[in-house]
Design brief:
2 domains, Rna Polymerase Sigma Factor, Chain: A, Arc Repressor Mutant, subunit A
Length: 164
């Protein structure tokens, strides 16, 4: 148990500051940091040592943060558009929208890294270019250019699918 205490003491503030920097919310950062260490304790045997322990913990924290944002976005969307308000026309539109979304997601999945992650962080998680650059250890301009290239690749993939 001493090693887990040491890992926690050595890394808590680093993980907390990282999440605080991307969330801007001290309470959320604290919650995510706690969840991170809980999850890390469960998965400590899966740590391969490919990166530093702090990097591994920050990756877990980032994933926890993104999951939290996605849950909040889905909940907010359901509050604004309850399923029972769909009529026949809107149900058909919903099917078409979901098919288009599936095509877009498939196109995104075909992207190579870092294009896939940058595009996803910007589009789905609505992170700023500054936050994305920071996540990759790059600058804001790098994130903008990478996102723009990823967007062009997605458009090209969708165009190719339409021609088939």
């Amino acid at each position: 148990m001493q090693i887990l205490d040491r890992i926690y003491q050595d890394n808590f503030i680093k993980v907390y500051r990282y999440i605080l920097s991307i969330s801007g919310d001290p309470h959320l950062a604290e919650d995510i940091t706690q969840e991170t260490f809980y999850k890390a304790m469960q998965k400590l045997d899966s740590f391969r040592g490919d990166c530093s322990l702090t990097t591994w913990l920050c990756r877990i924290a980032r994933n926890q943060y993104l999951n939290q944002r996605n849950r909040q976005a889905r909940a907010q969307n359901l509050m604004q558009h309850p399923p029972e308000t769909l009529n026949a026309d809107s149900a058909e539109q919903e099917v078409i929208r979901r098919e288009q979304a599936s095509e877009i997601i498939a196109a995104i999945q075909k992207l190579e890294e870092p294009y896939k992650e940058v595009f996803s962080l910007r589009t789905f998680s609505e992170l700023s270019f500054r936050e994305i650059g920071k996540e990759f250890g790059k600058n804001e301009s790098w994130a903008r250019v990478t996102y723009h290239r990823a967007k062009l690749k997605v458009k090209e993939e969708l165009k190719d699918e339409d021609e088939v």
